[in-house]
Design goal:
- The protein has five helices and 17 strands.
- By secondary structure, the chain is an alpha+beta fold.
Length: about 260
């Protein structure tokens, strides 16, 4: 793809900063509809990027995001200069989401994808009690906790890190299973899982101790069980500046004091 014939589409979040920046870029670069583009330029924050990944699941076009939010871990720095050069030199990162299958106490089944994590959270003041199965084998009889999450490498610096889970390099091919405020076993800090495993959470006494399941932004309340696998059939490609790749950001996070 040469710098001359690259076709760019532009999408942006609802914030004033994103809208103003979009207008600025439109004065400099010609943009085409998403259906005609070689690369999608996305303006917003991490929340907008996650929303976009879900909204464009069937679109194979790579996305070059520029941060106009708070942290912007999944995006590049915003600058209108030399945009085409940056995109041509960008490093692609392929992401496979987690697929959640959640069953509620009344038998309703919900499927959803998560590029960051799938988390289970207690709904009331009572501690959640959860059984953990790995590839259909019971590994933990009862985890008493506020919740638990399974994180992708891309999501390992988000909620997972706040819950004291490990930061995972993008190329490690592992997932982080991290408890949230574990009460019993008190010293259990979680586990690292192969991306090929099937994880199942079974809620103990779901009527008395209700639990919700969240896949990125999709929440299912009053779940009885949640099964998670990585969806290898779905791939989204993000582009990052070669001086500040996603792999480099994840590595830097491990050395922040």
């Amino acid at each position: 793809m040469s710098q001359i014939d690259i076709k760019l589409a532009l999408v942006n979040g609802d914030s004033e900063a994103a809208q103003n920046s979009a207008e600025q870029l439109k004065k400099i670069y010609p943009f085409v509809p998403v259906s005609e583009a070689d690369v999608i330029v996305a303006l917003g924050g991490d929340g907008f990027m996650l929303h976009l990944l879900h909204e464009m699941l069937e679109v194979e076009t790579p996305i070059f995001g520029m941060n106009l939010g708070t942290i912007g871990f999944l995006l590049n720095e915003f600058t209108p200069d030399k945009l085409v050069n940056r995109i041509n030199d960008a490093i692609p990162v392929k992401m496979h989401p987690l697929k959640m299958n959640a069953v509620t106490v009344d038998g309703k089944i919900t499927e959803a994808l998560a590029f960051n994590e799938v988390s289970l959270l207690r709904e009331t003041r009572q501690t959640a009690k959860i059984k953990i199965y790995v590839d259909d084998k019971l590994r933990l009889e009862e985890l008493a906790c506020d919740g638990i999450l399974l994180s992708t490498p891309a999501g390992s610096t988000a909620y997972n890190l706040s819950a004291h889970g490990p930061i995972i390099p993008m190329e490690a091919n592992i997932l982080a299973l991290t408890p949230i405020s574990a009460f019993r076993p008190r010293r259990w800090r979680g586990a690292l899982m192969s991306q090929n495993v099937k994880i199942k959470f079974e809620v103990c006494h779901p009527e008395k101790r209700p639990v919700s399941a969240v896949a990125d932004t999709i929440e299912v309340r009053n779940v009885k069980s949640v099964t998670i696998i990585q969806d290898q059939t779905t791939t989204k490609t993000l582009l990052f500046d070669k001086e500040h790749t996603l792999e480099e950001r994840i590595l830097n996070e491990q050395f922040i004091e």
